[in-house]
Amino acid sequence: MAPSFGELVASKTLDGHTGWIWDVTLSSNGQLLASVSNDMMIRLWNANTGLQRGAAKDNGHSHWVRAVRFSPTGRFLATASDDMTIRISDVNTGFTYRMLQGHTGKVRAVEFSPDGRTVASASDDFSVRLWNASSGSLLKTFNGHSGWVRAVAFSPDGKTLASTSDDNTIRLWDTSTGSELYQLSGHEASIRAVCFSPNGKLLVSGSQDKDLRIWDTTSGAMLDVLRGHSGPIRTIVFSTDGNQVASAADDLTIRVWAVPLGFACIRVLTGYSGWVRAITLTSDEKMVVYTSDDMTIKIWDSA
């Protein structure tokens, strides 16, 4: 099937940061957008109007803030920084509720577990750490990567954690025992993006080698390699029904792959500029894309 090309249409520009924007995340109810930057500030935005919600919060980080995630209930934000800490703050007050310390390198990624009880972090110290979100105590340290750890993702049931690294591998960890389940090899460069399917059976990874790879989470087997991007892959997201995967790359395209059609590329979206920081993709192929350039967030809608 030949892919149908489409355009993304710029709908809003969110202006306020005074440094490069590293990450953007959407709350589970779709109402709030959070962004973090070199300016060490967290900014909250109304996702529908694009207006900033209150003043930006300085949550105490002393260096660039690399990653931000909402808790499943939307009450808390977890932020990861080059200052080697993760902070959990209250969305409504901005108050830093817990500071998680222990990493000995920059923290590049942070994720809440599906139940919101634990937080996973990925660091340049080659480790992945699991923390109690309520108390801030360290639960487990996963060692095995031989390069900076770039991304982490929980399976939908929270029992498995995936991590990706500059060592060109993905590792799957058992969150209850801390043991390594599988080491997934095949990518030829650093892996920057990873995502579980909604049913947890598949894992999709995206690399600086420009390829996506599909993995079976039960066996660790590689099922497919998806080629088409001409630049490093930055972001991957599944649709809520699990039938589509969208991938964004530095070639300034977003590709939509149809899972029931053997991951055939069914759409290529263009028209935006800047690195894609987040994508929301619904089952009817409607898409909202958040990009970052010139210290602004631009919101694009699929035409």
UniProtKB/TrEMBL annotation:
Pfam families: WD40. Keywords: Repeat, WD repeat. It is a peripheral membrane protein. InterPro entries: WD40/YVTN_repeat-like_dom_sf (IPR015943), WD40_PAC1 (IPR020472), WD40_repeat_CS (IPR019775), WD40_repeat_dom_sf (IPR036322), WD40_rpt (IPR001680). Involved in mitochondrial fission. Acts as an adapter protein required to form mitochondrial fission complexes. Formation of these complexes is required to promote constriction and fission of the mitochondrial compartment at a late step in mitochondrial division. PANTHER family: WD REPEAT DOMAIN 5B (PTHR22847:SF637), WD40 REPEAT PROTEIN (PTHR22847). It is found in: Mitochondrion outer membrane. GO terms for cellular component: mitochondrial outer membrane; transferase complex. This is Mitochondrial division protein 1. It comes from Penicillium vulpinum. Belongs to the WD repeat MDV1/CAF4 family. WD repeats lie at residues 14-50, 58-99, 100-141, 142-183, 184-225, 226-257, 269-303. Its main location: mitochondrion.
